[in-house]
Design a protein that fits this description.
Elements: H1 10-27, E1 34-38, H2 43-52, E2 58-62
Parallel strand pairs: 1-2
Length: 66
């Protein structure tokens, strides 16, 4: 699966999602990938990676330490 958004159903399934999915991620039953780019100055590189298919999973720009 590559991903999709179904916003018109969010109200119907939001509670069930938050009851089920975080627990399954914590147990390792669901896995996800993130492609983290550090630094606001590298935003252009991150956008280009998404547009050319070179990112691996969800693209995230980290602009500050948490």
């Amino acid at each position: 699966m590559h991903g999709f958004n179904v916003f018109h159903l969010s109200e119907k399934y939001e509670d069930e999602f938050y009851e089920t999915v975080p627990a399954r991620i914590a147990k390792g039953e669901l896995k996800f990938r993130e492609d983290v780019t550090v630094g606001l100055e590298k935003v252009g590189e991150a956008i280009l990676a998404v547009q050319t298919g070179k990112n691996n999973g969800k693209s995230v720009i980290q602009v500050a330490d948490a």
